[in-house]
Amino acid sequence: MNRLGGVQQDHGPFRVHMAKVRVPLSMVLAGWAWRRAVGVFSWFCRRPIAVAAFVVLLTMWRVTADHGPLPLLGGISCVLAGLVALRLWAPERFTRWVAWRAKGWWRSARVYRYVWQPAMVTTGLAVRVDGEEYLPKIVSIRSSGTVDLVRVRMLPGQVLEDWADNAPRLAQTFGTQECRVRTVAGRRRDLELWFLVEDPLTAEVPPFAVETTDPKALPVAMREDGLIYRLRLLGTHLLVVGATGSGKGSVLWSIIAALAPAIQDRTAQVWALDPKGGMELAAGAPLFERFVYGDPKDDTAYEVDFARALEDAVAIMRHRQARLRGVSRLHTPTREEPLIVVVVDELANLTAYVTDRDAKRRIAAALALLLSQGRAVGVSVVGAVQDPRKEVVTLRDIFPTRIALRLSEADHVGLVLGSGARDRGARCDQIPESLPGLGYVGIDGIAEPVRVRFSHITDAHIAQLVARYGTEPAFMPVVETRRAAA
């Protein structure tokens, strides 16, 4: 017997003789039949359309056997007529219910299942034990107009990073432009592979037609699957990070354009703070309730103007907190108390580059209060910045929603979207300069960022917004009262 701290000698592997249990062949066959029956039943339960098609085919076969081929031809004609009618009067539903499903079935058989085994072997995701080969299982395959979603079940011992490291190889193997690996909620053993077949985001996205505004679902961008991305603004704050020329202006103007009907209805207000002298946001001044760009005639008050505006927003926030205390935990925008969106074009000019110490202290205190308490009472902050480092944006982690456009360094992706975001496909440092407005949206609590491209708002579009939705600023007694007290 080895003592504690001693050296254990290696005598070779132990031979363990397991007791053999004899099972009758009838029980083995019965168990096999039961597993197959349960598998077939669960397959039909997961595919109601396939069950309906099977029932229809069986019925048509019986009718044809009794009455000839005429009823069959009539039924086929009715189905084709229904598809044509759906295509003409509801093209979006036809695309979702028919075209995408047909494409998914075709690519499942022709692309993914056809080369799945060699793909797993060459990428090292297959495992060979005692001469037997084990492959990750394809659970389901769905397709949209531009993206194939392949859900797979990992082998024991595999993790997301194993698949993320092989994402470029998988994209090359299946002939797609890109592959991103995403987790599946409630399924720890499953992953979802997003294969980008065609990229709709290489073309400029025109502005969206907005007639009514829901601050919880603003149409601002196009997703990579060809659908509209709707951004939640009520109850959150938004940080936009991107290098010079990455399209931060497209993000800000897309949000303002989506809010335009609510601005006209007085259920939303935009307070625009442009520390760059008003160069970016001046064209939309008639849309803004407040437009602050500093007083170039008085250098001593240039930075104080921004501090005053933010402190006025804090005064409104506290007034609403007193009214909503014990009544509601989330503000509902109305004409009397609209949603206030504080838009800051270059946040670093208010946090890191301020030279007036007193103004810097006031700005930092007001921003901290708004970011920590304002979203529940309908005061949201939208800030744009180039450098996401802590010494530049000290309050970066308080923004629940973050948008990363083209970034200059790979390490910045994790600073904006969280650790592991780049492994999941958010390679913001590889976005070309020719695609401004392209980026990834990350939301707290959701691991996978969404790839989108924001609409391109030109000066002509801004002029149209101003002509259609521009209003005179409304009287705000809370702000005026605070100014008088000051």
Summarize the structure in words.
With 486 residues, the protein is an alpha/beta fold. The N and C termini lie far apart (85 Å). The longest helix is centred in the first third of the chain and has 22 residues, at 25-46. Helix content is 39%, strand content 18%. It is globular and about 90 Å long. The relative contact order is 0.10. The strands form three sheets. The chain has a ten-stranded mixed β-sheet with strand order 8-7-16-15-14-9-13-12-10-11. It has 14 helices and 16 strands.
Short structural summary:
The chain is of the alpha/beta class. It contains 14 helices and 16 strands.
Layout of helices and strands, plus pairs?
Blueprint: H1 25-46, H2 48-67, H3 70-89, H4 91-112, H5 116-122, E1 127-129, E2 132-134, E3 137-143, E4 147-153, H6 160-165, H7 167-173, E5 178-184, E6 187-196, E7 218-223, E8 228-231, E9 238-241, H8 248-264, E10 268-273, E11 290-292, H9 304-324, E12 339-344, H10 348-351, H11 357-373, E13 379-385, E14 401-404, H12 411-417, E15 438-443, E16 450-454, H13 459-469, H14 477-485
Parallel strand pairs: 9-13, 9-14, 10-11, 10-12, 12-13
Antiparallel strand pairs: 1-2, 3-4, 4-6, 5-6, 7-8, 7-16, 14-15, 15-16
Helix pairs in contact: 2-3, 3-4, 9-11, 9-14
